Amino acid sequence: MTRRAARPARRRHLRWVLAAGCLLVAAALPAGSPAVGDGQPGPLRMLQMNLCNSGLAGCYTGRAVDRAGEVIRAEAPHLVTLNEICREDIGPLERDLADVHHGGAVVASFQAASDRRTGGPSRCRNGQEYGIGLLAHLPSGQRGHTTYRGLFPAQDPIDPEERAWLCLHAPGAFHACTTHLAAFDSAAALAQCVHLFGTAIPALHSATRRQPTLVGGDLNLRFGGTPDLRDCVPPDYQRLDGTGVQQILTTADVSVGPVRRIDMAGTTDHPGVLVSLTVNRPPDRST
């Protein structure tokens, strides 16, 4: 977890707004780019990792990105959700994912947290933007992809780091999202969780077409905790065995296989979470 020197700060309006209260920024692949293919269900391995790589927190080791690359090369996931990373951490991990999959394309997205003090992005100690990321292997035949992102309306009033969410839409296949919720104010974390599952993801479903939805992230909320993660997650979502505050959740139209915790060899303060899924894709009724 990353926390910079806390100080009272004036609240400011989010500069990025959607009518529903969340930002949606789209970035599509060019026409004809490879993506998820034939509408048939198939196995998908999803990996969640918090790399604690800002350089500002006590859990920083400087070795987490290398370890994450080792895990990706060993486990060959199709979808990777990443928290507490610097912008340039994405590139090496994208290449590692591409190396273990043949055909199709690997796509990467990054979303910086915001710094309330400056009005700009939060920064790692090395000066790079700090935030969350998504990697996905999209097999040949996929009809492009689009990313959606935003800052939460509710934030910890003391911590200057303003938390964000990031989603990827693979048409005809799935929606995948990640976030890193407030670490030091549980009420803010709960409000952010409510916004993600109650506003941001439903807006994504409305803007595109409802599909199986996969969410991985460090939610800083626990099932059975105070507050309880169940207070913000819709009842039709499945909770897969996370590692405390790290969670993977899916809609009910996803079949769940084995879940494993991944040893990060002391490079970060969170183990990885790997799950095998079968995404039961809806039939394509387009004409």
UniProtKB/TrEMBL annotation:
Entry keyword set: Endonuclease, Exonuclease, Hydrolase, Nuclease, Signal
Protein name in the entry: Endonuclease/exonuclease/phosphatase family protein
Keyword Signal: yes
InterPro entries: Endo/exonu/phosph_ase_sf (IPR036691)
Signal peptide positions on this chain: 1-31
Superkingdom, taxonomy of origin: Bacteria
GO function terms (MF aspect): endonuclease activity; exonuclease activity
Organism: Micromonospora endolithica
